[in-house]
Request: fold
Amino acid sequence: MSTGVLPGNLEPARNAPEVEAAFEAVPPESVAEILDGELFTFPRPGRPHTRSASRLGMKLGSAFDLGDDGPGGWVLLDEPELHLGPRPDKVVPDLAGWKRERMPDALGDEDTPAHYDVPPDWVCEVISPRTERVDRGKKMRIYRREGVGHVWLLSPLLRTLEVYRLEGGRWVLLETYEDDAKVRAEPFDAVELDLAAIWTR
Reply:
């Protein structure tokens, strides 16, 4: 009978205890992630980053989470802590979304942990010079491994939105939108998104 535990050297890699301890010790004014067993810490995002992420969350959340002037059917969260894979990788995207049927209860009860272990259907990373290498590298590979259907990379400094779809285990760049374009971007193409509203002061 299978016990679900892999014998010997077939046991999946786990995060080292000292890495987990360091993760727990990171002060709240920093963002901490464990990616491929390695701890990464970043300062809290700068103002352009925070403003653009907040505006995008408001626009998408109204139409796709609340269902105001849009189809609804999604749960959208700002900076959720995701525990993905057996190690686990502990990832904090700027925004993440789940189709409602995959996240029927986003709150849980008083015993529910703060993190989420269901991979999202969509992730948005707001890239900056400090985070871009990790966002495009390790985090995109983790999202691919976990079957996240779409990733957006939003750059407030360049005023660009890159939209990726997962196809056959590979990321496909569908489009790069720029400046004040009005776009219909997967998986939220049911509603037009005015990028000028994302970059606003």
Remarks:
- The helical segments are 17-25, 47-65, 132-145, 196-199.
- The first helix runs from residue 17 to 25.
- The first strand starts at residue 30 and ends at 35.
